[in-house]
Amino acid sequence: MRLLFLKDFLDLIFPRNCDLCGRSLFDFESCLCKICVGMLPKTIYHQMPAENDLTDKLKGLSQIGLAMSFLRFTKNGVSQKLLHRLKYRNKPEIAVKLGNLYGQTLNKSGLYTNWDILIPVPLHELKHKRRGYNQSEEFGRGLGESMSLPLRLSLKRAKFTETQTKKSRIQRLDNVEGVFELKPGQSVSGLRVLLVDDVMTTGATLCACANVLLANGAKMVDLVTIAAGK
């Protein structure tokens, strides 16, 4: 009885609301209400992961197998709002929740058996310290929990780079050349890797990371992101 009273009191002082719509959350909901989860702009890349508009972007840039994204990115759309809250409003739990949800989808499709480990695209130390977390790592954490796969922080960002947001495709490729390295003591030799990031636009960052992993002996590298735009 006391615990129930304490919970009700804390809910009154610190209400739990949906990070997207602001509705009050039920006890079984975490950060997103069921209504908003049902309205997420989900893709069907998991049904055609080897041939789609994402893999088309990557041709000639890296020997990548499958490419998938959980959500379709649209300017001023639901996915952009979620990513903004995740990256700039200290809401890492959103990434974990989205990872859990997409991991369940990949479980049902049977794709989870394709990989040995998850590796997130790293942030530079300065940016990680400023934000407090890596959103790609948090998404990978949620995926790993759902698919029972280990998350390994094998890559590091050796150089600080400018934001990719307003750069052209060629500029993005130049901006990430030689930026990523395998951490000392880490090995990916013979492993089937699922590389994890938050957003895919041109794919330059993902390809740069994938090329490092492949050059260090990864058996194969597939890609997954929270959102991607055409």
TrEMBL record:
Domain Phosphoribosyltransferase: 143-228
InterPro entries linked: ComF/GntX_DNA_util-trans, PRTase-like, PRTase_dom
SUPFAM superfamilies: PRTase-like
CDD domains membership: PRTases_typeI
Family, as annotated: Belongs to the ComF/GntX family.
Classification via PANTHER family: DNA UTILIZATION PROTEIN YHGH
Entry protein name: Competence protein F-related protein
Organism whose genome encodes this protein: Algoriphagus machipongonensis
Organism classification: Bacteria, Pseudomonadati, Bacteroidota, Cytophagia, Cytophagales
